[in-house]
Specification:
It is a single chain. The protein is of the alpha+beta class. It has 4 helices and 8 strands; from the N terminus they run ββββαββαααββ. It has 2 domains: 89 residues, Nucleotidyltransferase, domain 5 (2-Layer Sandwich); 94 residues, no CATH class. The radius of gyration is 20 Å and the shape is globular.
Length: 212
């Protein structure tokens, strides 16, 4: 029986890495790393020291380049290797990283209307612009569901607060009514994918963004 292979794709804070292994032996056969193009070491910063964003275009380009490179390396190094013998692809990310998208799942950062709007980018794990909202959620939780907070050290993380911050105080990315694009909080991890529709979003013009 011919050997089979798997590829791991690891999205870090500054780069994406790919590793190709033999599924039977675990032998590492090829690897590749690609530093993100946008921002400072892959992180887009601003005057607000709490802000840390990433451009989703780096996720796509990074996957394309690193996956092609490890396959090309394996074709040169491993006798009998063929791309169709790659039977699995595992992906892990720095989480949580909320990403605003339109009704078709397209990142708002790819929409020219939001090109210069940092709130349309991916909100990195170390973005703490939602700290005030996180404190508000923590305070509310202590009053009505303290047992839930007990499982997280008594304090709710910034990430739900980040989503709320985006909706309420995120400049042009705010609730506008029943029409317009919707923000989706997308978390990808070992446990699966969680999608939560959060509310309509405006374009830079201040008008509801049309949902295709």
């Amino acid at each position: 029986m011919p050997d089979s292979y798997a590829i791991g794709l690891d999205y870090g804070t500054s780069s994406v890495r790919a590793l190709l292994v033999n599924t039977a032996t675990g032998q590492e056969l090829a690897e590749s790393t690609w530093p993100y193009e946008h921002g400072d070491d892959g992180v887009i910063l601003a005057r607000d020291p709490q802000l840390a964003r990433q451009h989703p275009a780096d996720y796509l380009k990074g996957a394309e380049l690193t996956l092609k490179k490890v396959v090309a390396q394996a074709q040169k190094k491993v006798r009998g290797f063929r791309p169709e013998r790659v039977v699995g692809l595992g992906v892990d990310t720095t989480g949580s990283t909320p990403l605003p998208v339109d009704g078709n799942g397209q990142p708002l950062a790819f929409d020219p209307r939001f090109k210069k709007n940092v709130n349309a980018l991916a909100w990195l794990w170390k973005d703490h612009t939602g700290w005030a909202e996180a404190e508000e959620i923590t305070s509310l939780g202590r009053g009505i569901r303290p047992q839930y907070l007990a499982k997280s050290g008594g304090v709710y993380s910034d990430f739900p607060g980040t989503v709320k911050h985006n909706l309420i105080r995120g400049g042009t990315l705010t609730e506008t009514g029943p029409s317009g694009a919707r923000q989706i909080h997308l978390r990808v991890g070992i446990g699966g994918i969680e999608i939560q529709k959060m509310g309509p979003i405006e374009s830079d013009s201040g008008k509801p963004a049309a949902t295709p």
